[in-house]
Specification:
There is one protein chain. By secondary structure, the chain is mostly helical. The protein has 20 helices and 13 strands. The chain has a 3-stranded antiparallel β-sheet. A two-stranded parallel ribbon has the order 1-2. Strand 7 and strand 8 form a beta hairpin. The longest helix is centred in the C-terminal third of the chain and has 17 residues. The protein binds one RNA strand through strand 5, strand 8, helix 7, strand 13 and helix 12.
Length: 484
RNA sequence: GGCUAGUUGGUCAAGGGGUUAAGACGUCGCCCUCUCACGGCGAAAACAGGGGUUCGAUUCCCCUACUAGCUGCCA
């Protein structure tokens, strides 16, 4: 069996869209599942849309997510260059285009924008234009004269106007279109650069790509690519078109929604493993139905035949849940490394950041959740004494005042402010009084935090706050309750 | 408008001619509990509609509806 070769071919135009990331992931998985090669190719043929630093983002993303490429601009294995602008500079695309002109599959087109505009028609608010093959009928002399005078030109493919074209997609099956629907797409632009449509075919062939994996949005232009392969007499690769990822409104995931790129998600406190895992599940389900997988497990389980045909909504809520699961499952060292910076940013250097990180671990979905959970440690918030009333704890403002007043001397006498010692102390009081745990814990926790809910219970909070601050807050509570 | 594709609970998603139509997120309820969260248990919630084929269709075929993509010198 031939060696499987897949390629990730992004345009360096900005952040890494999650749809692109998933495509890269599937390409990687398909190759690695068969022990094949995963190639990176930079498609920078649209000179107008290039963005500085975008190539670095691509490298960094692949590196962070573990989608390590076997070949690419930085790892030439004999198929280079791997950057289309560098390939263009060699004149290779033009050479292939001219070959097509000679064989009658393509032609020079000198139509200017003005003429093209006259071909446009408006259908339901959308501009639609079909080229009329005007330049196909130019005489050899006219073409030579235009070329000699330096008139700008493009090269277009000459599509047949009758018959049908059929191609096979690994997940959608055979798809047939009428050739008259295919327009004479541009192969070489007037700036000399190839279009995606052309460069893609040339490069995939030259680089020995066996499985062309890409988004669904290319499904309807794929028949055109087949005409190209046939014109060159090249073998057609396997096509695997992936369903699109959409937002909640079933529209293409866009920057507007705020979480359309890998970088957005990182900034929002997500773990790369969780992102990759989640994105893998948008359009694919492993045979064993296990949702949590490492990259290695995905490689082992992935089967592109089981890809979904329909588009998937990017469920941000589920991503958050999954990220929370990943956080809970993290080893301590790795967790502290990630979490402690967020803790310190929220709370400063004075408090025990590690203890706070522990307190918060089971309660966060992203690292951005940390700060709002810990705010009360820095400063006791203003709160209403009504908070001392809790039906289930059987507490109200009067009982709370009583408990706090009685417990204050005990806490003043207590030297060991560790969680265990404090808990033992208060448990003693609870049994002595013959009341429920919550009856005393609730007022203390309230006094010490000023919040309805907190990470950690009364004693855990006091442990972090320390004796002095804990007592200060309890005295404030007593005062508030007394002055009601 | 044309072309192509898609349609299983709100979302992801198994399954596939005969099933009580999985599982997960979310929602709701109960339990656990020094609050919240975690965890445990449970509940509500789906085969777009209409025609065929068939003893039987959610599954196969056709039509309709809806959705998306394409219809760029973008990719």
């Amino acid at each position: 069996m031939e060696n499987v070769r897949t390629r990730f071919a992004p345009s360096p135009t900005g952040r890494m869209h999650v749809g692109n990331l998933r495509t890269a992931l599937y390409e990687y998985l398909i190759a690695k599942h068969e022990g094949g090669d995963f190639i990176l190719r930079i498609e920078d043929t649209d000179q107008g849309r290039l963005l500085e630093g975008a190539t670095d983002i691509i490298y960094r993303t692949l590196q962070m997510t573990g989608l390590v490429h076997d070949e690419g601009p930085d790892k030439d294995k004999g198929y280079g260059p791997y950057v289309q602008s560098e390939r263009q500079a060699t004149g290779m695309y033009l050479k292939y285009a001219k070959q097509l002109i000679e064989s009658g599959h393509a032609y020079y087109c000198f139509c200017d924008q003005e003429r093209l505009d006259t071909l446009k028609q408006n259908v339901e608010g959308k501009e639609i234009s079909v080229y009329d093959k005007h330049c196909l009928h130019l005489s050899k002399e006219e073409i030579e004269a235009n070329l000699a005078s330096g008139k700008p030109y493009v090269i277009r493919i000459n599509m047949p106007t009758t018959g049908t074209t059929t191609f096979h997609d690994e997940i959608y099956g055979d798809i047939t279109v009428q050739n008259e629907e295919l327009d004479d797409m541009i192969l070489i632009k007037s700036d000399g650069f190839p279009t995606y449509n052309f460069a893609n075919v040339i490069d995939d062939h030259l680089m020995g790509i066996t499985h062309v994996v890409r988004g669904n949005e290319y499904l309807s232009s794929t028949p055109k690519y087949n005409r190209l392969y046939e014109a060159f007499g090249w073998e057609i690769p396997k096509y695997i078109h992936c369903p699109l990822i959409t937002d909640e409104n079933h529209k293409k995931l866009s920057k507007r929604c705020g979480h359309s790129s890998f970088e957005d998600l990182l900034e929002q406190g997500f773990l790369t493993e969780a992102i990759v895992n989640f994105v893998a599940l948008l359009g694919w389900c492993p045979a064993d139905n296990e949702e949590f997988m490492t990259l290695e497990e995905m490689v082992q389980k992935f089967d592109y035949k089981s890809l979904s045909k329909s588009m998937a909504v990017f469920d941000f809520t589920k991503l958050k849940w999954m990220n929370g699961e990943y956080i809970r499952r993290m080893e301590d060292a790795a967790y502290y490394e990630k979490a402690i910076p967020y803790v310190k940013q929220a709370v400063g250097e004075a408090l025990d950041a590690q203890k706070l990180a522990d307190l918060v671990k089971g309660r966060i979905e992203t690292f951005l959740d940390i700060a709002p959970l810990l705010d009360f440690f820095v400063e006791l918030p203003e709160y209403d004494t009504a908070m001392y009333t809790h039906k289930k704890m059987k507490t109200n403002e009067d009982t709370s005042l009583g408990v706090l007043t009685e417990i204050l001397p005990l806490l003043e006498a207590q030297e060991d402010y560790s969680n265990d010692a404090l808990y033992a102390l208060l448990s003693g009081y609870v049994t002595e009084k013959g009341v429920k745990n919550g009856y005393v814990m609730w007022p203390i926790r309230t006094a010490v935090s000023g919040k309805q809910s907190t990470p950690g219970g009364a004693t855990e909070i006091m442990e972090v706050l320390g004796k002095e601050e804990s007592l200060r807050r309890i005295r404030i509570g007593i005062e508030k309750l007394s002055n009601r």
